[in-house]
Every structure is written in C-alpha cells, then in structure tokens.
Amino acid sequence: MPPMSPGLMDAPPAMTPLAEAQLCEHAVQAIWRCLEERDLVDAHVREDLASVLDPLTALDFGDRPQRLIRILRLPDPLAASHLYWLTRRLLTLVPELQAAALSLRTGNNPQSFHA
Predict the structure, then answer these.
(1) Of 11, 61, 87, 111, which residue is 20 to 30 A from 97 by alpha carbon distance?
(2) At 101, is the pLDDT very low, low, confident or very high (cuts 50, 70, 90)?
(3) In angstroms, rounded to a whole number, what is the distance separating the alpha carbons of residues 92 and 80?
C-alpha cells in the first residue's frame, strides 16, 4: 500500500473570527432576501438557504442551524405550519447572527452564540 500523503488526514484549519463573522453576515443577507421575497415556498430557494446555513453548524449556535436546515430541505409543498415555524425561527436567528458577527469582528469572541 502506498504511503499516505502528509496532511491528508489532518483536520481542516480552524476558521478565523473574521471568516466566521462573514459567514454570519452572509447568512443574515440570505435570510432577509428569502423573507422579503417570500420565496420560502420554493424548494430551490430553501435548498440555497440551507447551503448558506450549513457552515453555521460548525459554529456554536447549538442545534438550531441543523433544525432549520432539516425543515428547509423538506420536499414541496411545504406545510403551512412548517413555513410558519421556519419564518419565525429565521427571524429570531437574524439578531443573534448579527450580534455574533459584531462580536467576532471586535474580538469579543463569546463562548457560545446561543442562550
């Protein structure tokens, strides 16, 4: 068996606080765009938003990003109760993402972004 290339099994480099802040800001923009255009009923738009939220699972937001992604990836038609839940959860996540981005940019890195 040939030897494995060095670095192949190494853990990926940790994100910098500025990269994490940019992820949060990008997620906020994507959420607002979807909510303003009322596009959450479209499976393609939901999948795009799920892809934007996916990197947040590596940050310390608890299991909320995973729960949102799970609902975003439900097939069409999205039940009205899911759409309502999703809209409310996205709206409550926005200020937390904004606060996290600000904290990360200013170097006040909190232990956790969720309450």
Answers:
(1) 11
(2) very high
(3) 18
Q: State how far the alpha carbon of 71 is from the alpha carbons of 10, 14, 17, 37, 48, in Å.
A: 32, 28, 28, 19, 13
Distance CA 32, CA 27 (A): 9
Tokens 């060095």 -> residue = 6
What do you get for the CA distance between the two ends of the chain, in Å? 49
- Residue reference for tokens 């853990």: 11
**pLDDT > 60? residue 10:** no
Question: In 3-state terms, what secondary structure has residue 107?
Answer: coil
Q: Is 3 left (phi over 0), alpha (psi -120 to 50) or beta?
A: beta
In this predicted model, what pLDDT tens digit does every residue of 68-87 receive, in sequence order? 999 999 999 999 999 999 99
What does the block give as tokens for 58? 């590596």
pLDDT at 5: 45
Distance of CA 114 to the CA centre of its chain: 13
Tell which wins on pLDDT, 64 or 36.
64
Domain map (residue ranges) of the chain: 18-106
